[in-house]
Amino acid sequence: MTRIAISASLLLALLLVSESAAIEITCDTVVGDLQPCLPYIVKGSTQDKPSNACCGGVKTLKASAKSKDDRVQVCNCIKATLKQISNLDPSRAAGLPKACGVPINPAPSPDMDCSQVDEGPMS
Question: What residues have CB less than 8 Å from 94, skipping those under 6 apart?
Fold first, then answer.
């Protein structure tokens, strides 16, 4: 292989790595992962525990929020989304991570302080 071909291959590899590292978690992703939780976190819910789909979404979201910036983004999306749920049961929303066995700090609420997101993976 010539030097130009090797250089071009290395440049392409760098571009692919930097492009994949720049992928952000969007609010659409957050809402999609947590959508199955809605029936559990509303006032008057008859569910005694979150569904498997709900807890699976919580676990997926936690695993995908690798950096502190990701966790702050997720936190802000959750906060904004919870503010839009008129019949939200705040205690169920706050207890959702524990009910799913997934520790997350701060606890989900419309008033959560996203500057308090832990350094670890949404822990």
Answer: 107, 108, 109
Distance CA 33, CA 59 (A): 9
Q: Which CATH class is domain 25-116?
A: mainly alpha
Q: How far apart are CA 116 and CA 106, in angstroms?
A: 7
Q: Digits of tens for pLDDT over the chain (123 positions)?
A: 444 433 333 333 333 443 344 457 899 999 999 999 999 999 999 999 999 999 999 999 999 998 999 999 999 999 999 999 999 999 999 999 999 999 888 999 999 999 888 755 444
Structure tokens at 123: 């822990």
End-to-end CA distance of the chain: 48
Task: Classify residue 62 as exposed, middle or buried by CB count within 10 Å of its CB (0-12, 13-18, 19+).
Answer: buried
